[in-house]
Every structure is written in structure tokens, then in C-alpha cells.
């Protein structure tokens, strides 16, 4: 089920194609978070008059690699990929290769020295300049644009949807991040937080509805600090969700990611009020220890976080929760680590994304705190966290046996075309016999079996 579950998780990669009437061929490869996937769709839209997208990298005249810098491993993976592409460039000397995204922003023109395959580099706020960068670099110059903007949201660009399931789509509602968690590169690679005009968000959602989409995920690094006050409108994230939910009762609304510091009662109550707002909240905790949370600059305490979880569960007993956890942050003691395990048990997460701390140059933690938990110990702690989450996911899935869920069908199971898969409101994947159903339909499925990762139903 990895193909299904990996969509938009922080370390996945994907390629896409589409049919445009154009001459040259473009191949885009995307790494990193959902925001990068949404950005690749914007890039495809910016270049659609000049390039036809292709599925085989061997056919490409232009290759764009949209990169992630979140952990060292993510960057190593890109370097390795660029090595692989060198042989192709030798075979096709006219081939242009451009690097986009967070790594472009973090490393800037320095990348031309380590990666001679590159013709141009564009940071996340510079995609409108791509046609120019491509044209100039075709003449043999190395070109780059890594300027960050205070207001770019690509609001007017209708992304080219490459997610061929045609059922669910990402809609970017804000860019950047102002939180400066001490370990994180995102505020440096994506710049300051800015919200997108709600009018254009609604136009995009309405277009998706006309195109037959059934689910939208509103995206931002910290969606609950969405704020719009211009153009005669004043809107919070809760209000925006409400307007989006009202566009059609058949449209499911999801969102990612929420920072625990501002998950307000207003927001929780809005989620509860609308059947079509999914009962699933990704609420990254990072650590269960107050000492570590403080060093991470997460600005909430364990107690505050648990109070928000209590409010969510009181208001919506069926709401699923997932989280992000970092193992082995600077100075993390065994006791701190135990606190992380205990908060996991206390919340009983349905799912978690779990990582070893990876020091990123330029961040507060790299400047201030030694990366002093040895790698083997980080691995050991991470393994403990992963094993515990496995138990928690299984417990949660077993509780679902015998229950009936409304599932939005996303596609055919990889293993057999006789089975379909979809998600319930809680974001759990459910696989069931196809019968005479098809992707895009809502079906009530009763769960009769499960693994830690998937529910099986009828
Ligand atoms: N904006 C989102 C998360 C963005 S990055 C939020 O605040 O929740 C996704 C996850 O990567 C983070 O939640 C964190 O768990 C992890 N992460 C970020 N920087 C990291 C680092 N330097 N080392 C390890 N994991 C990191
Ligand atoms: Fe990074 Fe924190 Fe911003 Fe999330 S909220 S993107 S972890 S700085
Ligand atoms: Fe990676 Fe940038 Fe997203 S660092 S996680 S692609 S915002």
C-alpha cells in the first residue's frame, strides 16, 4: 500500500505527465512535502504553453527536480539522483536540468559547483521566472533566481493537476512559515508566512468541483494561522474552511498542517459542525518533554498540547489524530525520550511520521545546541517510537472492526484490480472488493479485518 500512503508524506517522490499541444518535453520529479507537490502543479501550469509533460525521463528536453531540504537524507537523495541523470545528459547534450524547491533556496548558486549537471536553479518564490531562466540558460549561461517574496502566493495560477486519480486535489492556501522551530529550515527556504486571497482559493475549489474532484486538502505549513484582511474580506482559517465546506456537501475537506499552538476552539467546533470536513487532524507534537519542546521553540507545553487533544476528543469522539515526532534532538535525555513515548500512549495516535533529528546549517539549534545524541542512540530511540506507534495503530484499527465507514474511492488496489481502495473521514485506507463501484464514488464499507496499516472491508 506504499503507493497510496506515501502521497504527500515528507519523503516521497513522484513524477507526472499530461497532454498539452506543445513541442518540447518536460519531466518533473517532486520530493518532499505536499506543498512541493502542489508547487510542481503550479510549475507545470507556468510552462504549459512551451512544454508537453512526459512520463519517461529518457524523452525529456527539460528535467525539473523539485527538492526538499528538511533532513540531510532528503538532500543526499537528490545528489544521488543528479548523479544518475549525468549519463542521460551525456547522451542528450541539449537536455536542460533545473533544480527547484527548498534545496535550491538553501544552497543557492553553490549548487552549480557541486552539481555541474545543473543549468539553472529556482527557489520556491521564483517559479514565474522559469521561462526566462530556461531560455537564458539554453544559451549556455548558468542562471539562478532564489529571491524570496513577501507576497507571492501564485494565487492567479490554476495548477495543472497531475494526480491522475481525479478524485482528490491539493489547494495551497498560504506559503512560508514564521514559527522558526529551532531545528527547521522551512522558514529559511520558504520565507515569511503569507495567506492567499480567499476569492482565488474558492475559484480553484469550484473549478475542481466542475472537473469532478470530490476532495480538497487545504495546504500550508501552519494553516491555522491563515489570515486574510483585504479586498473587502476578513477571514480566519476556520471561516475559510466553512466557506469551502459549503461549496458542496459532496466535497470532502481536509487540511494540513496545524501547529498545536493555535488550534482554536473555533476551529475544532467548525470541524465538528460540518459532516464534509474530515474528522482527522495532523497535530505534530515533536516531543513529549517540556524541556525539549522549549529548546525546539515549539511555544507550547505538554500540558497545553494534551488540553487541545482533550478538547478535540470531547468535541469529536471519532476524530483521528496523527503526529510528527523527532527522536534524539539536542540534549534529549532518556527521561525526555520516555516522555515522548508516554505522550504517544496518552494520545493514542492513529498514525505518526517519525524522524531522527538531523542538524540543518543556519537553524537556531545548529547555532546554539550541540547535536549530542549519538547516531546509534537516535536510531534506538526512533525504533522504540516506531514500534510503539505500530502497536497504537493496530489498537486503533482493531477498534474499527465491525464499524461501517463512508469511504471515498480513490482507485484500484495495487495488488488486485478486483479491489478498490479509498479513505474514510479519519484518513484511514480501506480496501474492499470492487463490486460494480468505481473511483470517485462514496461507498459505505464495513470493516471486517485489519493490519497495522490498512483496514479491509466489505
Ligand atoms: N509545518 C509542519 C511540518 C513541516 S516539516 C509543522 O510544523 O508541523 C515536517 C516534519 O519534519 C516536522 O514536523 C518535523 O517533525 C520534521 N523535521 C523538521 N525539521 C527536522 C530536522 N531538522 N530533523 C528531523 N526532523 C525534522
Ligand atoms: Fe518548520 Fe516549525 Fe514552521 Fe513547521 S511550524 S515548518 S516545523 S518552523
Ligand atoms: Fe521539504 Fe521544503 Fe517541504 S524543506 S518538507 S519541501 S517546505
Structural domains: how many:
4
Task: Tell me the name of the CATH homologous superfamily of the largest domain.
Answer: Methylthiotransferase, N-terminal domain
Name of the top-level CATH class of the largest domain? Alpha Beta
Computed CA radius of gyration, to the nearest angstrom? 22 Å
The profile of the biggest β sheet is: 7 strands, mixed
**How far do the termini sit from each other?**
18 Å
Reported CATH architecture of the largest domain? 3-Layer(aba) Sandwich
Shape descriptor:
globular
CATH topology of the largest domain: Rossmann fold
Tally of helical runs = 15
Poorly predicted tracts of residues: 1-12, 17-22
**What is the total tally of β strands?**
22
Which ligands are bound? S-adenosyl-L-homocysteine, iron/sulfur cluster, FE3-S4 cluster
What is the strand content? Answer: 15-25%
Q: Indicate the structural class.
A: alpha/beta
Mean pLDDT: 93
Name the helicity range: 25-40%
Amino acid at each position: 500500500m506504499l503507493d497510496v500512503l506515501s502521497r504527500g508524506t515528507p519523503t516521497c517522490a513522484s513524477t507526472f505527465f499530461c497532454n498539452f499541444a506543445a513541442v518540447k518535453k518536460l519531466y518533473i520529479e517532486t520530493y518532499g512535502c505536499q506543498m512541493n507537490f502542489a508547487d510542481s502543479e503550479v510549475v507545470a501550469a507556468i510552462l504549459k504553453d512551451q512544454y508537453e509533460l512526459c512520463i519517461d525521463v529518457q524523452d525529456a528536453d527539460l528535467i525539473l527536480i523539485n527538492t526538499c531540504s528538511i533532513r540531510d537524507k532528503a538532500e543526499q537523495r537528490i545528489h544521488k539522483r543528479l548523479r544518475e541523470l549525468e549519463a542521460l545528459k551525456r547522451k542528450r547534450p541539449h537536455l536542460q536540468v533545473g533544480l527547484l524547491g527548498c534545496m535550491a533556496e538553501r544552497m543557492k548558486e553553490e549548487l552549480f559547483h557541486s552539481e555541474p549537471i545543473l543549468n539553472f536553479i529556482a527557489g520556491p518564490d521564483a517559479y514565474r521566472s522559469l521561462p526566462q531562466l530556461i531560455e537564458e540558460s539554453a544559451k549556455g549561461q548558468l542562471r539562478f533566481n532564489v529571491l524570496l517574496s513577501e507576497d507571492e502566493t501564485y494565487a492567479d495560477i490554476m495548477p495543472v493537476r497531475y494526480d491522475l486519480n481525479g478524485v482528490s486535489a491539493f489547494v495551497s492556501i498560504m506559503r512560508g512559515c514564521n514559527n522558526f522551530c529551532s531545528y527547521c529550515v522551512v522558514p529559511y527556504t520558504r520565507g515569511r508566512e503569507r495567506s492567499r486571497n480567499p476569492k482565488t482559493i474558492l475559484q480553484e475549489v469550484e473549478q475542481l468541483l466542475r472537473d469532478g474532484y470530490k476532495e480538497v486538502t487545504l495546504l500550508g505549513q501552519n494553516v491555522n494561522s491563515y489570515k486574510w484582511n483585504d479586498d473587502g474580506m476578513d477571514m480566519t482559517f476556520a471561516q475559510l474552511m466553512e466557506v469551502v465546506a459549503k461549496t458542496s456537501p459532496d466535497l470532502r475537506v481536509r487540511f494540513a498542517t496545524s501547529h498545536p499552538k493555535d488550534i482554536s476552539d473555533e476551529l475544532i467546533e467548525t470541524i465538528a459542525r460540518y459532516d464534509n470536513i474530515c474528522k482527522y487532524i495532523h497535530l505534530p507534537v515533536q516531543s513529549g518533554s517540556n524541556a525539549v519542546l522549549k529548546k525546539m521553540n515549539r511555544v507550547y507545553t505538554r500540558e497545553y498540547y494534551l488540553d487541545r487533544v482533550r478538547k478535540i476528543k470531547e468535541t469529536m469522539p471519532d476524530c483521528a489524530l496523527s503526529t510528527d515526532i523527532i527522536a534524539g534532538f539536542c540534549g534529549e535525555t532518556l527521561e525526555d525520550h520516555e516522555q515522548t513515548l508516554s505522550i504517544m500512549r496518552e494520545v493514542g495516535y492513529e498514525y505518526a511520521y517519525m524522524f531522527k533529528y538531523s542538524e540543518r546549517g543556519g537553524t537556531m539549534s545548529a547555532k546554539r545546541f550541540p547535536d549530542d545524541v549519538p547516531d546509534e542512540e537516535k536510531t534506538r530511540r526512533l525504533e522504540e517510537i516506531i514500534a510503539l506507534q505500530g502497536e497504537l495503530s493496530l489498537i486503533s484499527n482493531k477498534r474499527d472492526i465491525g464499524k461501517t465507514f463512508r469511504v471515498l474511492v480513490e482507485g484500484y488496489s495495487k495488488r488486485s484490480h478486483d479491489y478498490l481502495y479509498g479513505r474514510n473521514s479519519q484518513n484511514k485506507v480501506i480496501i474492499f472488493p470492487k463490486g460494480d463501484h468505481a473511483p470517485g464514488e462514496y461507498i459505505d464499507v464495513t470493516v471486517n479485518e485489519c493490519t497495522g496499516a490498512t483496514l479491509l472491508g466489505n
